[in-house]
Write a structure and sequence with these properties.
The complex is a heterodimer of chains A (about 300) and B (about 425).
Chain A (H helix, E strand, L loop, with lengths): L3 H36 L1 E2 L10 E2 L3 H8 L1 H34 L4 H12 L2 H12 L5 H8 L14 H27 L2 H9 L4 H12 L1 H16 L3 H7 L16 H10 L4 H33 L1
Antiparallel strand pairs in A: 1-2
Helix pairs in contact in A: 1-13, 2-13, 3-7, 3-10, 4-7, 5-11, 7-10, 10-13, 12-13
Chain B lengths: L1 H19 L2 E7 L3 H5 L1 E2 L5 E3 L2 H11 L3 E7 L2 H13 L6 E5 H9 L8 H10 L2 H7 E2 L2 E2 L2 E6 L2 E5 H6 L9 H7 L5 E2 L5 E7 L5 H14 L17 H15 L17 E6 L4 H8 L3 H4 E4 L9 E10 L6 H12 L2 E2 L4 E2 H10 L6 H5 L2 H4 L4 H6 L4 E3 L6 H16 L5 H19 L1
Parallel strand pairs in B: 1-4, 1-5, 11-12, 14-17
Antiparallel strand pairs in B: 2-3, 5-14, 6-7, 8-14, 9-12, 9-13, 10-11, 15-16
Classes of the chains: A mainly alpha (about 300), B alpha/beta (about 425).
């Protein structure tokens, strides 16, 4: 039987729990629940929700049949894959190279600059750099007599141009995190490898990479979530007067941008909520897979 | 202390009683700073009145009415209407793009104007503006602006290429455009013959609709139950656009905004671009910029869109709101024989006022080299259809047209895809 003290202690503990429970209910459980509720109705935000029509899973069916959504999904997946498979390995290589330099503060600073600039501004600057007629990139290419590209202005190269900027913009912060991981690896391991005749390549593959696993998993999860939610970079790059956001012709359309346009341009809140819930499920399940692999790699380290 | 509290309470009570007697109206607009606050010279003297000066004048004449102007950028304007409506803090008076009107009407957001307003609109406005303000055979407000398109060309660049006149027909434009192209020694285009307007749905769709109407085609069947963009006329109109790309007169990276830099010879543009061009060309505006009707395919045709003022159905002072709008938009000033809104549109905003008397009595502003062609073209202008999901329909069409511009598909493929998608959208509502 519980003593009076234990009972009072439990009550106080429950009291303390009220704040996080209220916080999670208001900012997480309610919005998710509300978006599921809306995703089953046809609502244009102009009429009260009470008079909206229940449409069942029609919005979900429409989303999966919508070629623009499928295009946005494909573009987002390509963008995310490039960040994960090109951007992160590149940042690890640069971090290792930086760790070899004695005075690397300047280079770390240079690499970090893009991370403190808002993505929308980065997009606007790169849209100018990419201008096919007046942009500095094509001007430099022309100096060398090489064939120029239309970059964002060509449906075939537009998504590639966006991905290139995405990799550049995330390189700095990924490199810094990787650099901290590399610095944590004990030098004695490298010294032992040198005694055994291990060269730089072997040291990288047999010491650096295995010990960086937790860092790599962390980078994978955060970059996966950020890349899947890419919005501002695409708006900055393609939302100028020269093209429409997500254009030309949806060639740079991404999930969150299309969700936003569906809700606030086409006034289809039900369909946009269905998209949001699909994205939530996708990110939630992928993150769990990554988190499990992170835990596994942590166990292996110990 | 008690005495002081009593005096403060008395003051608050007095102010509350005073405020009970006044009527407050909130007017939401999408206009920029100078359009709201007026244009001032270097010494701070008012050169041209903005909306605020007219509102101040009305409040002076009607001391019981307080009007607050809430100005939001065009890109955020529809979102503001939605969000304020959801939060129960709607504006009382709106400026509305005719295409938004359908959904606002269907959702019961707009108040039906009193009979004296709708009768006045029917009698005194240009037809394209009346049609733009009419949804389900009901007039929902007072037209304030009507826009259409024209060919804007650089006289100097045309003259350099040996042309003394702009193209009258689309065939002439297709033939002239490649001859106006200039390239540097590395093959980079330094001057385009023609540039299509692009960047948002109306930019791509409106000029295409002008060509479609010129071919005798229609976008939608009566009743809006069916899309007609797979018709031979529609395919012909897009093929005519593609001819300019195929013969090298333009490419998708050609931008109309480079016209102001003198590196594009011809564009199809709306009247609101005049002030930007005047700033860009300065003293050389008149000798450089020429305006002509859109070169036609089979017959002269144009597309138009309208803006109108409306009153929110939840407005507590509907009668006063309509009275204010009538004073601003319809009442004729005895000295100028124009309306206040007509003055604001013609003198400050640089747009075409749709009231017939305003078109007649602003000769200085509306009969200048730039604007007069647009006004003459109103007789050929067909309003874009006021259809539910207009923005989605136009964006769908835009994306297919742009893919065709990029050579990803033929005109027929583009328009068949657009027709299929638009029919799916229409089937949800009609």
């Amino acid at each position: 039987m519980k003593s009076k003290f234990e009972f009072r202690y439990q009550k106080i503990a429950y009291l303390y729990l009220i704040i996080p429970v209220v916080f999670y209910s208001v900012f997480i459980i309610f919005p998710v629940g509300f978006s599921i509720f809306i995703s089953l109705r046809r609502w244009n935000m102009l009429v009260p929700i009470s008079v909206t029509k229940f449409v069942g899973f029609k919005n979900y069916l429409r989303v999966f049949k919508d070629p623009v959504f499928l295009m946005a999904f494909k573009n987002t997946a390509i963008y995310t894959s490039c960040i994960l498979l090109i951007g992160i390995p590149l940042s690890i290589i640069i971090a290792v190279l930086l760790s070899k330099l004695k005075r690397n503060a300047f280079w770390r600073y240079i690499l970090f600059i893009p991370s403190i600039v808002p993505l929308i501004s980065i997009g606007m600057v790169w849209a100018f750099l990419y201008d096919p007629t007046w942009g500095p990139i094509n001007t430099i290419i022309r100096i060398f007599g090489l064939p120029v590209s239309k970059w964002l202005w060509d449906t075939k190269t537009a998504m590639f141009s966006v991905t290139l900027v995405g990799i550049w913009a995330t390189l700095g912060i990924n490199t810094l995190i990787s650099y901290m991981g590399v610095k944590e690896i004990p030098i004695s391991l490298y010294e032992a490898a040198e005694i055994d005749g291990g060269n730089e390549v072997k040291k990288f593959f047999y010491i650096t990479l295995p010990l960086l696993k937790p860092i790599i998993s962390f980078l994978m999860i955060t970059n996966l979530i950020n890349s899947f939610q890419i919005f501002d970079l695409v708006v900055g790059l393609t939302g100028q007067k020269l093209a429409e956001p997500g254009g030309p012709a949806n060639s740079t359309q991404v999930l969150v941008l299309y969700m936003y346009q569906t809700a606030f341009k086409y006034l289809k809140m039900g369909k946009a909520s269905a998209m949001a819930f699909i994205l939530f499920l996708l990110l939630f399940s992928t993150s769990i897979v990554f988190l499990k692999s992170l835990k596994k790699s942590e166990r292996e380290n110990y | 202390m008690v005495k002081r509290l009593f005096l403060i309470s008395l003051l608050i009570l007095g102010l509350s009683i005073l405020s009970w007697g006044s009527i407050k109206l909130v007017m939401a607009v999408h206009w920029s700073d100078y359009q709201v606050n007026g244009v001032y010279d270097k010494n701070g003297n008012l050169v041209s009145k903005g909306l605020k000066q007219y509102v101040d004048e009305y409040m002076h004449l009607n001391p019981d009415v307080k009007i607050e102007i809430q100005s939001v950028a065009f890109d955020d304007y529809l979102k503001k209407i939605l969000i304020t409506h959801m939060s129960g803090k709607s504006a009382d008076v709106y400026l509305l793009y005719s295409l938004w009107g359908v959904q606002l009407v269907d959702s019961g957001i707009l108040n039906v104007p009193p009979r004296y307003i709708s009768e006045d609109v029917k009698k005194n406005y240009v037809e394209s503006a009346i049609k733009g303000t009419t949804i389900n055979n009901v007039i929902w407000g007072i037209p304030i602006e009507v826009d259409n398109y024209a060919l804007v060309y650089n006289k100097k660049l045309l003259k350099e290429a040996g042309y003394s006149h702009p193209p009258k027909t689309w065939d002439e434009l297709v033939e002239m455009a490649p001859k106006l192209i200039k390239k540097d020694n590395k093959g980079a285009v330094k001057q385009y013959g023609f540039a299509f307007l692009a960047g948002w749905d109306s930019a791509v769709v409106h000029p295409y609709l002008s060509l479609l109407y010129s071919c005798g085609g229609k976008m939608l069947a009566p009743g809006y139950k069916k899309c007609l963009l797979n018709s031979p006329e529609a395919i012909k109109a897009l093929n005519e656009e593609l001819r300019v790309f195929k013969n090298g007169g333009t490419d998708p990276s050609a931008s109309v905004w480079n016209f102001a830099q003198g590196t594009v010879a011809m564009i199809i543009m709306a009247p609101w671009y005049e002030s930007s061009l005047k700033i860009a060309f300065g003293d050389k505006f008149a000798e450089t910029v020429g305006v002509a009707p859109i070169p036609y395919i089979d017959k002269p045709a144009n597309v138009s869109y309208a803006w109108f003022t409306g009153v929110d159905s939840t407005c507590k002072h509907k009668k006063q709101a309509w009275k204010f709008l009538s004073w601003l938009c319809s009442e004729i000033q005895p000295n100028t024989k124009t309306t206040r809104l007509g003055d604001l549109m013609a003198e400050t905003i640089g747009a075409i006022p749709p009231r017939i008397i305003d078109l007649k009595n602003h000769p200085k502003q509306l009969e200048d080299v730039y604007t007069r062609t647009f006004i003459k073209e109103l007789k050929h202008s067909i309003p874009e259809p006021n259809v539910v999901q207009g923005a989605e329909i136009k964006t769908t069409l835009m994306n297919e047209i742009v893919k065709a511009w990029h050579g990803e598909q033929t005109a027929k493929q583009a328009l068949e895809k657009a027709t299929k998608k638009i029919n799916e959208i229409l089937s949800e509502y009609y």
